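#help-structures
NK: newbie question, is this the right format to request a structure? protein is Histidine kinase
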Amino acid sequence: MKKPIIALLHIGYWMLYSSLLLLLLFMLNNGAVWNNRQLALFLPLFIYVPALIGFYTFYTFLFSRFLVRKKIPALLLTGVLTSLLAGIAGISIVWIIWKHRLPYKEQTTAIIAFIVMMAINALLNGLVGLVMRAFISWYNDIRWKETLARRNAEMELALVKAQINPHFLFNTLNNIDVLIEKDPAQASDYFKKLSGILRFMLYETRAEQISLSDELAYIEKYIHLQKIRSSRPGYVHYSVEGAVGNIQVAPMLFIPFIENAFKHADTKKQDNAIVVKFDMREREIVFHCSNRYMPHMQKQETNEGGLGNNLIQKRLQLLYPGKHQLNIQTGNQLYTVHLKLSV
């Protein structure tokens, strides 16, 4: 929800609250309890001070601290204590303004009664603040899910275009065809890898999340198929460190960078021309991908036949807001991608 709309909600609520105050002033302003000056000064303090404290304490602190985390008993206890403190704060202000004397004969009785009434006032306004914040959060969640669904639809279309790369399929099938006569066993192995890649692209990528082990298996098959296009398989260095465990990630999260590296690597005759590394740490995945390129290939990012960096960054922002760090550097004929992902 946009900030101006949220501001209007707050203004509208306090205007309604002020209208009720004016109505109360009109009903009580008969001169029987206090004179007009006393009434005009006492009631706003009595009504607004605990109301503001209760409303915004519940709205800001208690919502994020307890309600979001579903700590209901702690919410109730803290809410009651906050309301009592708001009542004490309100009566203290009134006490100071009236120079340690309330406009009522029975001072002790008046203090206790006013604290209780102010605490109830703070509690009721706090509950309203809690409901308003919950409504805003619920509305933002719906908007976020709609945006995510729309972006995912765009991403799925882009992924399909990136996945079904005619050049990759054509070259791989040609290489397999050549291997059928020279080494049927190896040709069969490569054909199974290609079949596994196609199966993964058609079925696994539709899920919101898949196991990291499946994602890595797909990447490994892809790299193996790319290696058969070179007489020097050592031009690709691929490694995985740490325990994969049961980590779940969004599908096709790393492969666009790897595809980009193979597309723009300047040579297949040099060792470690492409380096792909995964480092599994505690609740964190560190991904590194780099490739060497020719000096004239300064701009490696492309949307043609693959995913551009802008689209990839948007996807990361939607799927992992505040939980990722993407750093892309170009220099010394080396294009490097470094991605940290909290899971």
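mod (FA): yep, format's fine, and the tokens are attached above. Residues 55 and 125 are 5 Å apart (CA to CA).
NK: thank you!
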